[in-house]
Design the sequence.
């Protein structure tokens, strides 16, 4: 980098203008002012250039600051856009799965509704059958009750018949006894009539007729008695049969009553089941409506999700473009050298003047660490010899702490641009802006020559956080 031009006698103005033109063809140092000796229109042009550089410095500094802010935000926007796109895609997939689940659910509910409808129809038929059975059971119970009454009445009638038969038997016994007694009396009368002779002949005939009549009466009475005995036997068997029938009727009545009670309980339970089944069908119908509405909402959400996925993809692409454009715009400002760069360059040059830097030794890392602590915008500082071999540790900032990494000692940096620029020019070199792979922040490297007794002995390199640098 050329130093400030100073007026020197005997130097041609044309050479000065040529040097300025050459310098303007390289990076623009906005911290400097141009001068040429003498007076004239060229001086007016130089003053105008200085004014332009001053205005340009303010503009570029502000533009660069805004670019840094934008470039710092752009990765976050890109990450957020990527997250939004991932979330949108995930949401879309979840909605599709929900739609599939909803269709399965709707099919299942439809099947359940059909099954419940069939069950309800079957239940209605069962209710009807139960009602018919209950009606028949009631009729059977009524008939059994009527039969019980009839059997009871028949039992009474048979009992009355048996009593009457027994009364008749008693009367027949009396008749038989009377017939026997009459027979004896008529026999006695006949004997007496025979003794009376002719006077008792008519009485004897009568006595004989009475005896014959009493004999026939006794015979008829015996026949009646025998018939009554047969009737009594039949009545006894009839009474037994009627008792058995009456017992069966009582059992039938008891069974019919139990059946009627059980059937009534079955009817009540099944009607409750039928009522609950109707409630289930109503609930299933409500579920069908709810699932239908939910399906419609899912379709709407799916449409929105697809649109969101498309928009998020577009947003992610735009975020990528914004990131690339902001980085390109920020990196494009590397053509300018701001006054802050010169301040940082001077600070590194002052640090290069320390004895422990000019003559590396055990205290070199400590000096570098103190320099790093006093310059908040420095992130990393290191020292090489004049062959590009690193002779110090990597001293870097880690929050409020400082770390010395000895592993890079002995590493060869002789092919790096910052080293080559210093070696070729013998002057400080300020790199263009770049994004650090280690911190993902925007940085630049300032490399300054280290002299000991006017001899070039190495290069002191410093990586600077660009955003922090703009604040000084």
Sequence:
């Amino acid at each position: 980098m050329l130093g400030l031009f100073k007026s020197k006698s005997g130097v041609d103005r044309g050479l000065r203008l040529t040097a300025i033109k050459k310098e303007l063809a390289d990076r623009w140092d906005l911290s400097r002012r141009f001068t040429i000796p003498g007076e004239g229109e060229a001086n007016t042009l130089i003053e105008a250039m200085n004014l332009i550089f001053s205005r340009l410095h303010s503009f570029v500094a502000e533009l660069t600051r805004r670019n840094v802010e934008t470039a710092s935000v752009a990765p976050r926007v890109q990450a957020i856009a990527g997250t939004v796109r991932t979330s949108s895609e995930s949401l879309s997939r979840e909605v599709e799965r929900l739609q599939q689940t909803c269709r399965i659910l709707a099919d299942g509910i439809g099947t359940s509704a059909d099954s419940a409808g069939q069950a309800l129809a079957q239940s209605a038929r069962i209710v009807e059958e139960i009602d018919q059975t209950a009606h028949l059971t009631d009729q059977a119970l009524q008939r059994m009750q009527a039969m019980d009454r009839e059997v009871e009445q028949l039992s009474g009638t048979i009992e009355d018949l048996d009593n009457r038969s027994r009364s008749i038997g008693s009367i027949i016994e009396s008749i038989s006894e009377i017939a026997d007694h009459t027979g004896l009396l008529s026999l006695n009368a006949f004997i007496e009539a025979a003794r009376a002779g002719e006077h008792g002949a008519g009485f004897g005939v009568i006595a004989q007729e009475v005896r014959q009549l009493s004999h026939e009466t006794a015979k008829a009475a015996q026949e009646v008695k025998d018939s009554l005995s047969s009737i009594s036997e039949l009545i006894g068997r009839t009474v037994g049969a009627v008792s058995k029938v009456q017992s069966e009727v009582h059992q039938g009545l008891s069974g019919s009553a139990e059946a009627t009670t059980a059937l009534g309980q079955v009817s009540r339970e099944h009607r409750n089941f039928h009522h609950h089944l109707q409630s289930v069908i109503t609930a299933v119908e409500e579920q069908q409506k709810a699932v239908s509405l939910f399906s419609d909402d899912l379709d709407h959400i799916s449409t929105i999700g697809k649109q969101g996925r498309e928009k998020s993809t577009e947003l992610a692409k735009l975020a990528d473009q914004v990131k690339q454009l902001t980085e390109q715009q920020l990196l494009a400002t590397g053509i300018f050298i701001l006054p802050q760069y010169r301040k940082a360059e001077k600070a590194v040059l002052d640090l290069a003047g320390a004895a422990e830097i000019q003559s590396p030794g055990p205290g070199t890392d400590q000096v570098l660490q103190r320099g790093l602590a006093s310059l908040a915008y420095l992130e990393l500082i290191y020292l090489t010899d004049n062959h590009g071999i690193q002779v110090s540790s990597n001293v870097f900032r880690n929050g409020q702490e400082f770390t010395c990494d000895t592993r890079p000692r002995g590493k060869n940096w002789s092919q790096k641009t910052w080293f080559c620029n210093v070696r070729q020019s013998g002057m400080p070199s300020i790199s263009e802006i770049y994004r650090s792979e280690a911190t993902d922040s925007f940085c630049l490297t300032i490399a300054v020559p280290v002299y000991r007794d006017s001899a070039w002995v190495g290069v002191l390199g410093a990586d600077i956080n660009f955003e922090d640098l703009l604040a000084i």
User: Anything to note?
Assistant: Confidence is low (pLDDT under 50) at residues 1-11.
